[in-house]
What does this fold into?
Amino acid sequence: MSAPGASDSAHPETWPLWEVFVRSSRGLSHVHVGSLHAPDETMAVRNARDLYTRRSEGVSIWVVPSEAITASDPDAKGAFFESPAGKNYRHATYYTASEGVKHL
Amino acid sequence: MTTATEQEGRARFDELIDSDSRVEPRDWMPDDYRRSLIRQMSQHAHSEIIGMQPEANWITRAPSLKRKAILMAKVQDEAGHGLYLYSATQTLGITRDEMTEQLITGRARYSSIFNYPTLSWADMGAIGWLVDGAAICNQVPLCRASYAPYGRAMVRICKEESFHQRQGFEILLQLMRGTPAQQRMAQDAVDRWYWPSLMMFGPPDDDSPNSARSMEWKIKRFSNDELRQRFVGTLVPQAEALGVSLPDPELRWNEQNGSYDLGPIDWTEFQEVLAGRGPCNAQRLQRRRDAHEDGLWVREAAAAYAAKQAARVPEGTAA
Amino acid sequence: MTDDARNDSPDHGHVELTAVTLADEFVAEGGTATADTAEYALWLGDDSLVLAQRLGEWISRAPELEEDVALANIALDLLGHARSFLRYAGTASDRTEDDLAYWRDEHEFRSAHLVEQPNGDFAHTIVRQFAVSHYLYEIYERLRASADPVLSAIAGKAVKEVDYHRDHADQWMLRLALGTDESRRRLTTALDDLWPWVAELFVDEPVNDRLLDIAPRPSTLRPAFEAGIAAVLRECELEVPNGLTGAGGGRRGRHSEHLGPLLAELQVLARQHPGATW
It folds into this structure.
């Protein structure tokens, strides 16, 4: 099962599950806040607004069918995620010669 | 006979638990941990949903427009909390429909506190102060539950819940500063809701088989008796501020233990309510079942419309 | 809730609350309404109050939990509008929003018959929302330009919320009309039952002659209302119902048989304790 929610052919739900992502007015990216049931994407985004943004203004909402989400497999940690070890050159702090030079 | 992956999985799981880390939905977990979580989380969700009913009872009769708005918002929050928890539980492999089915057929439990009737407006105050207060005591530690989706849902819930307790306290404060009839109303509500709210922490530690295992798995962080004690400790000064008395003649401060001694709790009442023979058990389930069954044609209509719309859009074209 | 809260913290029952700047609860404080403006504000306040009361009855009974949340949101928006209008109306007679809501008798209310109708099934509730939300949208759109600054301010905020209610109703009209045979049948029944009460919304009263640049004349709202309704009904593949028309009279204090029991429930507790504060 690669999807976050649960739904299989033995128990098809009347309304499918959607994952909700919200970016607050002060935020830079959408954050997963939870899920809800809705018959289609139009109702999903409206339900998400009612359920997850009652206390905030001017937010951006994304809804995605749960089954559309592919999650990385934590069992494959070793191979799947590149090891940062030995690749310090990817980090700015590696470069010390330019310390003290403005705007770098 | 366990496979190599199972052994690896279990080793990693034990490590996560021991180091107080979080278990995510895709991590390996023992079957009984999964089942236990499904039971606890879905029960929690059901409690929020059923818990809407005793308070919804007073929305149409709220004695001021401000109180009406506050009560509506509170009950709406409870629906939302149930929804957050159903979502989190679904990550463990059970559907909302299955959970609803379990609830309305009486196979799932929910907090028995909601099987008591709300007989006066002051009950809105008592529920906010005592019931939500007890719930907060139980819930804040859950923000650090080992199962991450549960912990995350709880953080969101706890932030919203703090308004619930305050509004309840303020309802009672206003009543106690009011007419003699209002004061009597407030004291009567406290008398009826106090002991049931203490029972929310569950049976005494010795009689609680699920607790020990939940604590090992760091789903549950404190024992029932511990939480009950601490809760009463917070209530005593608040009761003084309100000017209400707590209906426990044996309640007194124990200097030696640094905590309060409580009078005996009537656990037979608890057992009766748990067994379905409380004042409102049948009514609460019926209302939930009616809403679900009456709403079937609506849910089916929306699903049918969605299916027809989807069939109209040819594959590969932008919607 | 800070991430590093420890198990053994003595404050384990304590939750950090993020500091929030609370917006003003009511818009445009400080104005005093004239008698005529107050009368008009009662129409709007009572429509929203009665409808909010009706929607409140759906809480814990909605067809799906997400819809329970949605209906409660709409009810809360409407209750907010009601409070603003009633508060303003009360300034003309030194009465509070609660004085007006709980201590007026039936004949003093100014709600239209349509909002007083019982919830019925979900189809009836949606049809009522459909008609009322489109109607309120047309009012508030124009009321924003009112010469009365308080009405203008209230409308400025309310129009956005009512626009959302209108969208919610439109979405459900489509789904019930084009979903299943059963939903379509229930919807057409609801349209037949409720449409007779629509005409009353567009009847001009004498006070409208005196409120020229303060409030839009009800009859002037009809064309835009009908265009909006027709567009949705077309998509629903339904005709605008053409049956009986209810006599109405709500703006003159003559109400449907439904208002009495509704007010009895709304007012009972407050009236049991005259002079009490809650």
